[in-house]
Amino acid sequence: MTEELKKGLEGVLVAESSLSFIDGDAGKLIYRGYTIDDLARNASFEEVVYLLWHGELPSAAELSDFKSSMAEERHINDDVQRLVRDLAEADEEPMAALRTIVSDLSAYDPDADADPTAEAANLRKGRRITAKIPTALAAFSRIRDGDEPVDPREDLDHASNFLYMLNDEEPDDVLSETFDMALVLHADHGLNASTFSATVTASTLADLHAAVTSAVGTLSGSLHGGANQDVMEALLELDDSGKEPVPWVEDRLAAGDRVPGFGHRVYNVKDPRARILSAESEALGEAAGTPQWHDYSVTIEEYLGEEKGLAPNVDFYSASTYYQMGIPVDIYTPIFAMSRVGGWIAHVLEQYDDNRLIRPRARYVGSEDRTVTPIDDR
Ligand SMILES: CC(=O)SCCNC(=O)CCNC(=O)[C@H](O)C(C)(C)COP(=O)(O)OP(=O)(O)OC[C@H]1O[C@@H](n2cnc3c(N)ncnc32)[C@H](O)[C@@H]1OP(=O)(O)O
Ligand SMILES: O=C([O-])CC(=O)C(=O)O
């Protein structure tokens, strides 16, 4: 047994996975052998989820079946609708609301009583969870704004249907394709913290809903998925301040704050997803006459690269991309979850397939050999 301490489990290998690989020095990400650039350009979110869950890209017939089997699971029942409304009316944090909703979905899942490791049941549960998250999220967002939820449509793809339910308007091709690409880019990323959380939960033979609920909670933090919302809030603060980006960042660093959207545990160079999203953000800004968001971002990226050796991660450019798509800032992280749920489920399936309880140790540094003093003498 090694006594070497690896805080944050940095660099520790704890599993074998055939889902995604990150080359942190080359800035390369692959899902099951396909580069992220190839998938972003040539595959839809549904194709990528199929790839992650089944190991191969679907044929046209397989894709058509998969899409319709997901689309027909989009509705949420009256009880879940009521929960969504209660959470929205209570002004719950969106990620906390999503965590509660995912947990609640298990109460109505027809496979809830199946063996937690049964693959066929888990694929059905996975389709339901993946299909229902966008419906619940769009309803939550609309109710908070004083609008009524919009029922899902089965004839739209996953990305377009979400934007349709959010805005009560079918998105144009640019919005729909950009959003679909963002979902593809966020679908998997090795053993990131939320995925690890899902696998730890699954390793106890807890069920898929428990694993995804754990993962949503873990994704919410500002060092992980929560950073995309923080990035946009920072860019808005910069814009309001009237300062130039460089002095604004210098002030932030001088105050001891981190700059959200920069740094990564695995990448030593720019995250390849940030490269793709930067181009999307720039194109949206050019089309809408709002180039400032991309301009600010590029200036900050150049400064932090030169001065601190820090490069942007996926959250840095997803923020201005979503903003220019008119998406409310505080649902950026739930949107991350809407995509990453595909990866979480794939990793949980892998974990069940070759399970071993995940249970590391801590080096004990507390006191020893103490005895209890009677309560009246303390
Ligand atoms: C989808 C995702 O989860 S991507 C990550 C999203 N999170 C963020 O963007 C939040 C900001 N980033 C960070 O806090 C970090 O870079 C993390 C948490 C992502 C990675 O952290 P770690 O691998 O633990 O790196 P660590 O925290 O040790 O940082 C290494 C050094 O870089 C600095 N650093 C890292 N990120 C940043 C940042 N965003 N701003 C300023 N300095 C930073 C640290 O201060 C540290 O410097 P030091 O050695 O002088 O103390
Ligand atoms: O891999 C990580 O640690 C964080 C990340 O970029 C992701 O989850 O997409």
UniProtKB/TrEMBL annotation:
SUPFAM superfamilies: Citrate synthase. InterPro entries: 2-MeCitrate/Citrate_synth_II, Cit_synth_Halo_CitZ, Citrate_synth-like_lrg_a-sub, Citrate_synth-like_sm_a-sub, Citrate_synthase, Citrate_synthase_bac-typ, Citrate_synthase_sf. GO terms for cellular component: cytosol. It is an enzyme of class 2 (transferase). GO terms for biological process: carbohydrate metabolic process; tricarboxylic acid cycle. Belongs to the citrate synthase family. The keyword Transferase applies. Signal peptide: none annotated. Pfam families: Citrate_synt (PF00285). Its EC number is 2.3.3.16. This is Citrate synthase.
